[in-house]
Design a protein that fits this description.
Largest sheet: 6 strands, mixed
Structural class: alpha/beta
Strand order of the largest sheet: 6-5-7-8-2-17
Shape: globular
CATH class: Alpha Beta
Strand content: 25-35%
CATH architecture: 3-Layer(aba) Sandwich
Number of helices: 10
CATH superfamily: Thiolase/Chalcone synthase
CATH topology: Peroxisomal Thiolase, Chain A, domain 1
Number of strands: 17
Length: 364
């Protein structure tokens, strides 16, 4: 699917990560492999540290805290917020949805529309498309909350997934614009026949969590996990990214009459440093233009990686300058998404830490 939405811009980005840091050097003692082989893998993949929420902190705590920070810092007027879109692959409760929980936590206006999207790694771009369509339909300002708490779905004895996972929330404020260059082009593609490549089999209606699904077993790679834990065929994901991501980026650039060479920065989903270095080389893009370090310091926070990467790597530069940017994401589904836009002169581009212990309000 392709689409270009006119008269819309991102006016601010804020990323929030848990204050708790988990270090790969300490985790490798839990893996069913020699410490030497784990250190060697960590060096190649860029495993260093990642942020993990404490047991009392949820997705809605992260999202509420971040949006409350923006409200209390006067970056967002909560009475002028027309809608919030909460995108995640987990829920605080089966009912109600995360967006309504945030709405209640922050006592937002009853006219503020609440939308929940169930998405994975491509979720931020999917939410950006939905927000752009709402702006195009007549709204003035929409908050996207993209959040992940993935560590609870990975087994610490599974070296294939646990070192990658990170928890975070990213908030982007999308607003109406009269500037002629403020339009966003989107491209999406899905292949549901390959859903088993990246999947958590137990926990839904198809296979409810039970004593049987909770049994830990040794998989073909020598890792330990249960059916309740995330499974990833790393080789299949790697080939999917190398084969398909350059195509969808080119497709999205063409919608704006651009080529890869016209893009100032590629802000992509962040699986690991190794994969992104290979992707940059394959695309003949300088590595400094395609960031690859977010996973090394914060982990792969699924749908939150794009706002986290933007805030971590560009920060104040996005408050001062304006760039041609290409977002790209890929993951479970298997799914692909890309967006090209002019990004910059933002009202804010910040990174904050969540204090833990279930806090959902920012204290000045």
């Amino acid at each position: 699917m392709q689409s270009t939405v006119k008269g819309v811009k991102i006016r601010g980005i804020c990323a929030c990560v848990p204050s708790h840091v988990s270090y790969y050097e300490e985790e490798l003692k839990s893996f069913p492999f020699s410490e030497h082989s784990s250190r060697k893998l960590g060096k190649v993949m860029g495993f260093r540290e990642h942020r993990i929420t404490d047991p009392k902190t949820t997705l809605c705590d992260l999202g509420s805290y971040t949006l409350d920070y923006l409200i209390k810092k006067s970056f967002v007027n909560k009475d002028s917020l027309d809608a919030i879109i909460f995108v995640a692959q987990q829920l605080d409760y089966p009912v109600p949805g995360n967006s309504k929980v945030v709405h209640g936590n922050l006592k937002l206006n009853q006219n503020t529309h609440c939308v929940d999207l169930y998405e994975n790694c491509t979720g931020f771009i999917a939410a950006l498309f939905q927000a752009s369509c709402l702006i195009n339909a007549g709204l003035n300002e929409v908050a996207i909350i993209a959040a992940n708490s993935g560590a609870c779905y990975a087994n610490i004895k599974d070296r294939n997934t646990y070192p990658l996972i990170g928890d975070a929330a990213g908030v982007a404020i999308v607003s109406k614009s009269s500037h002629v260059d403020d339009n966003i082009s989107f491209a999406f593609r899905h292949d549901g026949t390959r859903s088993n490549v990246l999947i958590t089999k137990a926990g839904g209606m198809r296979m409810p969590i039970s004593e049987e699904t909770s049994k830990v077993f040794k998989d073909e790679m020598g890792n330990y996990r249960s059916l309740n834990d995330l499974y990833m065929d790393g080789t299949a994901v790697f080939h999917f990214v190398m084969d398909e991501v350059p195509k969808i980026i080119d497709e999205c650039c063409r919608l704006k009459g651009l080529t890869r060479k016209d893009i100032d920065y590629f802000i992509t989903h962040q699986p690991n440093r190794f994969m992104l270095e290979r992707l940059a080389d394959l695309m003949e893009v300088p590595r400094e233009k395609l960031f690859n370090n977010t996973g090394e310091y914060f982990g792969n926070s699924s749908c939150a990686t794009i706002p986290v990467t933007a805030a971590f790597n560009l920060g104040e530069k996005l408050e001062i300058n304006r760039y041609r940017v290409c977002f790209a994401a890929f993951g479970a589904g298997l799914s692909l998404a890309s967006a090209t836009l002019n990004l910059g002169k933002l009202d804010f581009c910040r990174m904050i830490e969540h204090p833990g212990n279930g806090a959902f309000k920012y204290e000045l």
